[in-house]
Here is the input.
Amino acid sequence: MKRIRVGFLGCGNVGGGVYRLLEGFREEILHRYGLQIDVEKILVRNVTKPRSVEIPECMLTEDPGEVLENPDIAFVLEFMGGEEPATAYMLRALKAGKTVVTANKVALAMNWHLLQKAAMEHGCGLYYEASVGGAIPVISTLSTSLRANRIEKVMAIINGTTNYILSRMAREGQSYETVLRDAQRLGLAEPDPASDVDGIDAACKLSIMASLAFHCRVTYPQIYREGITEISDVDIRMGREMGLTLKPLALAKREGDTLEIRVHPAFLPASHPLSSVDGSFNAVYIHGHACGDMMLQGRGAGDMPTASAVVGDLLQAAMVEKHMHPTFANTAEPDSSLVFTDNWKTRYYIRLSAMDAVGVLARVADCFAEKNVSIASMVQKDAAEGRVMLILVTHEAPEHALASAVAALDPRKVQVQSVIRVES
Here is the structure.
């Protein structure tokens, strides 16, 4: 039997789940792996605060040094969230020779290069399966299972809150504002939902996934980001009539040294595997040159799904003889040979409000043709108060050309209501 002592940084929802899993699964862990895992100290903001799980008071501390400087603690599990002070505490732990397991996508996306450098210099491990996709084994799949592949594309739904909102809008025909309020009431969205609905959470996760998939550092500033706050139930309904499903998409593609890394709502064909990912579920769709297409799906958040990933990392870290790290140049900035494009090619859904007058439709078509944007289909809805709703779907076109075509429309005659990318 091997005994290991661990310390927690934070004990909120995820930390409580990890504590419950370690206690409730103790006998199985001992039987399967010969490991006795003891929680030594838990850093909290307030030791007197009521908690969802019963923890002996002697384990709790408000002093980070009791975790970070305790020579008996070999593994530090971080659940604080946010960039700081989590990054500073993890660096202290690593520099003290303690292996770190974290669920913190923000700290990792922003400071991965610093954390990995400290881990390698001090001969300890840095594990982060729980930082993307909760219980879904995305990190290990990209890091080990698919390492004989050249990954060419990753498409993912990696924020459960936004997927829940868009799924309910589609199912019930309700507005964004109404569904968001419900999500906040149910605890699925924060009182300040900006990190989720503005795409910040998904962009941090995509930074990590794309770096591993393409074997190069993809930093947060390189990611194009667009939230779901302007999405209308009208567009979801119109898209469904055209066989399209709206999803909060995180997308990364690589062709040679050119990368496109973006987070935004996008229509997918109803037949696409990601279209059926409903509610708060997450999924990651991967294309590799050898493996072809595959998809991983499951619970992307929550105390126990995330705890599953954290404890899995802890067991792995406790059993290996040598900790492994990504071998790409993990630096503060991407390699200078890489080109991050913002002129990707895709199809587009465009909703217009146009004057119901002779020649207006022809002029719309001309504006797009002049910018070499081909219209695949055009649907006109019933006129009201002298205007008509036009729904256009283009063939594949460059982003800059599409933007130029839309800008060329005469706003006195045609008003652009929405532009949504269509992926496949």
Remarks:
- The first strand starts at residue 2 and ends at 9.
- The chain has three domains: 2-134+306-319, 138-299, 345-422.
- Residues 77 and 101 are 5 Å apart (CA to CA).
- The mean pLDDT is 96.
